[in-house]
Amino acid sequence: MVNGCFSYGKRPILKNVSFTLESRQVLAVIGPNGAGKTTLLKCIMNLLPWQSGCATLDGQNISRIPAKRLWRQIAYVPQLKRAGGSTVREMIVLGRSAYIGLFSQPKEEDYCIAEKIMKKLSLTKLADRPCDMLSGGELQMVMIARALAAEPKIVIIDEPESNLDCHNQLRVLELIREISQTVACVINTHYPEHALRFADKSLLLLYGGEQVYGATDAVITEDNLKRAFNIEAHIGNAVIDGVSHPYIIPISSNCDSYAQI
Amino acid sequence: MAKKIRIKIGRGFVLLCVPLAVFMIALCQGRYTVSPLLVVRALLSPFGVESASNVVLVVLNVRLPRALLALIIGAGLSVAGTCLQSVFSNPLASPNTLGVSSGAAFGAALGILVFDKTVYIQGMAMLFGLVAIGATWLLSSIRGKPSILMIVLGGVITSAFFSALVSCVKYVADPQSKLPAITYWLMGSLSGADYEDLMLGAPLIIIPTAVVVLLRWRLNILVLSEEEIISLGMNPKLMRWAVVLLSTLIVATSVSLCGEIGWVGLVVPHIARALSGEDHKHSIPVAISLGAAYLLAIDTMCRSITNAEIPLSILTAIIGAPLFACIFFRRGASGFEA
Predict the structure, then answer these.
(1) Predicted ipTM > 0.90
(2) Nearest Cα to A92, choosing from A141, A134, A136, A146?
(3) Cα torsion at B199, B201, B207, B209 (round to 10°)?
(4) Partner residue facing B279 (CB), from A45, A70, A90
(5) Do residues A153 and A73 lie in contact, with contact meaning Cβ atoms separated by under 8 Å?
(6) Could you give the number of structural domains in chain B?
(7) How many whole angstroms separate alpha carbon B134 and alpha carbon B244?
(8) 20 to 30 A Cα–Cα from A173, which one of A187, B165, B166, B231?
(9) Neighboring chain A residues of B335 at a CB cutoff of 8 Å
(10) How far is the alpha carbon of A106 from chain B, nearest alpha carbon, in Å?
(11) Which residues in chain A are closer than 8 Å to B216, comparing Cβ atoms?
(12) Residue B338 included in any domain
């Protein structure tokens, strides 16, 4: 990912975004509403064109990789929407699309891969349930399962935990941590705390296209939160049974440093 | 494993038997009832089996081409309806939604008014069916890339326009000779079906239907959002238009052969889904089987209930509308919210 720029009309959204992501890492993209988080994800996958710069995958420009090959390596989970009436199993098998010939039907092997993933994500008991009967948390798990069915190198998830209750938020984030043992993950999130707890690297987007990138501990700081979100916050660490859990308490939204931005 | 295969074979057998049974009944039934045994003998008569000449005439020359055409058109319209419902993620989409039917109907009406020769009438129906889909496409892409809403709106506009033109043709048509012919055509009828129709029209329905059968699993993906389609490695625009064009070909051909037939393309896909689930891998074969059987059954009723022929659209609607109401009440309105 080198020097990506993007703008809607004359308004620059992203300026010289650069980052690298290794396999088995989680990158969190954080930023206030409208800072261009989703836009960045779409640019990475070439769903939106960069104005300059490019994203590369194993040294190859992503915009030049043919679709079928690209989507065996990158899987995308868009923001949660209502799904149709197809069953969970059918939905997950759709993830095999990039491996299946245009005029072919999914084979036994593709169903096996779907079954394996359902087992891993404990979705097996939902296999024959129509997707429009699932709860938000279950549907998000199914969408992640569909992404994994492509056996990708990178999974890109747009706001994986939005609109979920705190149990399901934790479940999805723990799942992302788990799948990052085999793939690289890029997630968008509104919660700096989630980045702090679950991401190796963070990219904090500010208004006007500027950004801060680095190891999460170095990016999510009280100063940077002030710059990005215009809040006064306290970052602390709770040690429970010998394991430390970082937390953030937002204290006040009235911040006089606003003029600096 | 073995059980799975047995279920597969069993399902295929049922799907084949339903239209076949209706086919046998259709060949027997009519104003001149023929026993099934005589029908089989008549069917085998080209291979040297002896059979009475009047039975051969009725079965082979009159009923057989008509029954075959009904099977093919019924299957084709159901497939086209399923495709359009998938492409537009809209359970109310049908061949009429895109203006194809109206365009083709106008072509046919104009053809009757000007030429009076079947081949020309069919050619005109095809031509204007394609003109209509072109107009819908143009209207929907005036303001940048066509969204689903714009395509449906374009279809509504095109449809209204061609309906007005049909009225216009009817208004100027000679009320003694041409007007009844046009009106009768528009209500749909297979009464004129012969082998020439079959040779001309059948390939234009069978080939696109076969392509859709091969593509059927992809229809599951077309229901999703554009970004999801891309991220599953497909080109959404290309795929959508390919499927829409295949459906247009089927619909325009069927209108050119037997006039506008409503309801088959709307109701049969819903029944197929209710029976086999949302996966198009299963619902397309079911839709083909049911659609073929449904239209043939209705056509058989059309020609045997009364002494005079009843136009097809009247019965497809009289039977289709209550069926649709049943599905609607059973699935509840939630099933229809896109």
Answers:
(1) no
(2) A146
(3) -130
(4) A90
(5) yes
(6) 1
(7) 11
(8) B231
(9) 85
(10) 8
(11) 105
(12) no
Which of B252, B60, B1 is CA-nearest to residue A108?
Answer: B1
Do A47 and B230 lie within an 8 Å CB cutoff? yes
Rounded Cα distance between B286 and B107, Å, is: 32
Cα–Cα distance between B257 and B274 in angstroms, integer? 30
Inter-chain residue contact A42 with B214, CB threshold 8 Å: no
Residue span of the structural domain in which B98 resides = 2-331
Is the pLDDT reported for residue B330 higher than 70? yes
The CATH number assigned to the domain holding B33 equals 1.10.3470.10
Domains of chain A, first to last: 2-220 (3.40.50.300), 221-261 (no CATH)
- Min mean pLDDT across A186-190, B88-92, B304-308 is at B88-92
pLDDT per residue over A11-55, tens digit each? 577 888 888 888 889 999 999 888 888 888 998 888 888 888 788
Distance from CA of A197 to the nearest CA of B (A): 28
B300 vs B311: CA distance, rounded Å? 11
> How, if at all, do strands A154-157 and A74-77 pair?
parallel
Report B:79-138 residues touching A (Cβ under 8 A): 89
Tokens coding A219: 């990016």
Q: With bands split at pLDDT 50, 70 and 90, how would you rate the model's confidence at A260?
A: very low
Mean pLDDT of B62-89: 93
- Inter-residue long-range contacts of B318-325, CB under 8 Å, 24+ positions, other chains counted: B320/B262, B320/B263, B320/B264, B320/B266, B320/B267, B321/B263, B323/B267, B323/B271, B324/B263, B324/B266, B324/B267, B324/B270
Rounded to whole angstroms, the Cα distance separating A155 from B53 reads 71
Alpha helices in chain A (DSSP H): 37-44, 67-73, 88-93, 108-120, 136-149, 166-179, 192-198, 216-219, 222-229
In a domain, B336, yes or no: no
Establish, for the pair of chains A and B, how many residue pairs have beta carbons separated by less than 8 Å. 68
Contacts of A103 in chain B (CB under 8 A): 214-215
Residue of A nearest to B280 (CA): A86
Cβ contact A78–B225 (<8 Å): yes
Check residue A156 and give its pLDDT.
94
